[in-house]
Design brief:
Elements (H helix, E strand, L loop, with lengths): L4 H17 L8 H11 L2 H15 L6 H30 L14 H4 L11 H12 L6 H16 L14 H19 L5 H5 L2 H17 L4 H23 L5 H11 L1 H22 L5 H27 L3 H6 L3
Helix pairs in contact: 1-2, 1-3, 1-11, 1-12, 1-13, 3-8, 3-11, 4-6, 6-8, 7-8, 10-11, 13-14
Amino acid sequence: MPQIIFINLAKAIGIILVVIGHFFPVNCPAWYKALHDVIYSFHMPLFMFASGYIYFATLKAVEYHKFISKKIKRLLVPYWSISVLVISIKLISGNSSLQLDHPVTAFSYVEMLYSPAAGGFLWFVFALFIIFAIIPFFKTPESRLSLFVVSLVLKYLPIAITFKYPAIFCLDYVINYLPYFMLGIIVLEHRAYFRIWVSLHYSVVMLLFVAGCAAVILWPGSIIVNVIAPYIGIFAVLRFCLFLETKHAFWPVSALLSIAAASYTIYLWHTTFQGGAKAIIAKFVADTGDLVFALSAVIVIVIGISVPWVLHTGLFRKYRLTKLLFGL
């Protein structure tokens, strides 16, 4: 089995970027909006890439129904658990007292079975599960490469593919993010062809990344930026993580690996605690200056990462029931 330390480091960076990206107040300064745009240009493609890479690196011969059963326990059961909890909290709070971005109704308990009713960010769970349901049928290198090509064609067709009910199982997101998942598989399965990228000097990779970030800020929404920026971001982060992997004794590396282990828990819970932190800060802080905003952002982001991490390491992993409910 190939070493996946560097890809777990990338997953940790990815979840940190997710938490940062989900803090986006309407009154944020221009510099933070630029940072947000850069993060959104590649953070979920990076997460999908890492998921595909780890899937193939840990692939074992197992019957399809057992594989799907495992994914239901790992992805859907935690999703349903957090959805019930979040919807209940929102209904009890009246949908407004905590500055909620995604109001709910009683029907949301039904809606959560086929769409991310508790919060829009949960699209990732449905999209990833459907991808996992599809990928085992592609058993050969040739078939996986074909699926990768088809996914690129579907994503970049001049005419967008739409669904009558796109919210159901987030099928539009499946189309948009399948290429990145497949790229993770292709890079690992055909890693000999990617040695040129690995051999590039860090300064070259970082220069390309800076150029990509500048393009996102200067030409937002352009076709070239939308197509190229995600791949530049993915490979820049991976190259950085390959460097970090050589510094395994460095404590931030251990911290990132710990965050990676709790990444799904952080993904499911971070907006809940971020929302609470934002509401508390809004009640006591009226200043909207850049310094106050930056400090508020740091507090909200740290809470969004640290509290779910503490729950994961100190509570959820200790008890059989919480292990079941939260996919551990």
